[in-house]
Specification:
134 residues; 4 helices; 3 helical TM bundles of succinate and fumarate reductases; mainly alpha; single chain
Amino acid sequence: MATRARKTRSDYGRPYLGHEGQWSWILHRVTGTAVILFLFVHIVDTALVGWGPEAYDKVVRAYHNPIVHLLELGLVLALLYHALNGLKITLIDFFPRLARHIRPIGRATAALFVLAAIPTAAIMLKQTYDLWRA
């Protein structure tokens, strides 16, 4: 009677970690959802004007919290990524031959995001730090 050798974890190779296109797709959906959730909150807080200036001012005061500033940084970075990735998708939709070069286009998009995100984050984090010190 033949017995099967017990397989170790390394016999299966490394786990699948995804492809750049898959991560791009996931991040596009996540950032799109974050933007929609922000828009909902923005509509609600703007509608508070109907309850009077005191209610609106109370909500706007909450935006001067350093934690909320960090959330705003996340929102700006999500908008930036979503916009750049949307441009990539639009280019490929209008020029289907570019699909052959999807990997370098995706990497260029990621590089543009990083190049734009670094100064944006630096400026916004300085404002958050200044608010935290005050």
